[in-house]
Write a structure and sequence with these properties.
The chain is mainly alpha-helical and 131 residues long. It has helices at residues 8-17, 19-32, 35-40, 56-67, 87-90, 101-111, 113-120. Helix content is 50%, strand content 0%.
């Protein structure tokens, strides 16, 4: 059986052109965080998976928004997109250098795209979650 492997260039192109792929990337990176990191919105373990220290807080906030979670990682709200009209207001403080939350999330996803390539190619599995 021959599998088509995705290159980083291909994944980067998808992330640059597909908002849904960016949102999925936020969720995948969030799932790679340890349970403690997911709760705290910080990166404590240098394990080369999940968000970097710089992106952990905003990436966690984005993922929770996308999954309809509150700050305790409990699913309590309807699932929303980063393109939702309220997202710009809710995430304003995290987007000072970007025009909107989707642009900030895209920046984070592209920065972490090497991990996403490994996921796309089946080299690593996305951890199961308890929520």
């Amino acid at each position: 059986m021959t599998y088509t492997l995705h290159t980083r260039q291909q994944i980067d192109h998808i992330l640059r052109t597909n908002d849904r792929a960016v949102e999925r990337a936020m969720i995948v990176l969030f799932k790679f965080q340890t349970a403690t990191e997911q709760r705290r919105g910080k990166t404590d373990v240098d394990n080369d998976v999940g968000f970097t220290m710089v992106d952990a807080r905003v990436g966690t906030r984005f993922a929770r928004w996308l999954l309809g979670m509150n700050d305790n990682n409990e699913v309590r709200y309807p699932v929303k997109s980063l393109s939702h009209p309220l997202a710009a207001r809710v995430f304003k403080r995290y987007c000072k250098e970007h025009p909107n939350p989707m642009a900030r999330a895209r920046h984070i996803a592209l920065k972490h795209s090497a991990q996403l390539v490994r996921v796309a190619n089946g080299e690593v599995e996305v951890p199961e979650t308890t929520w």
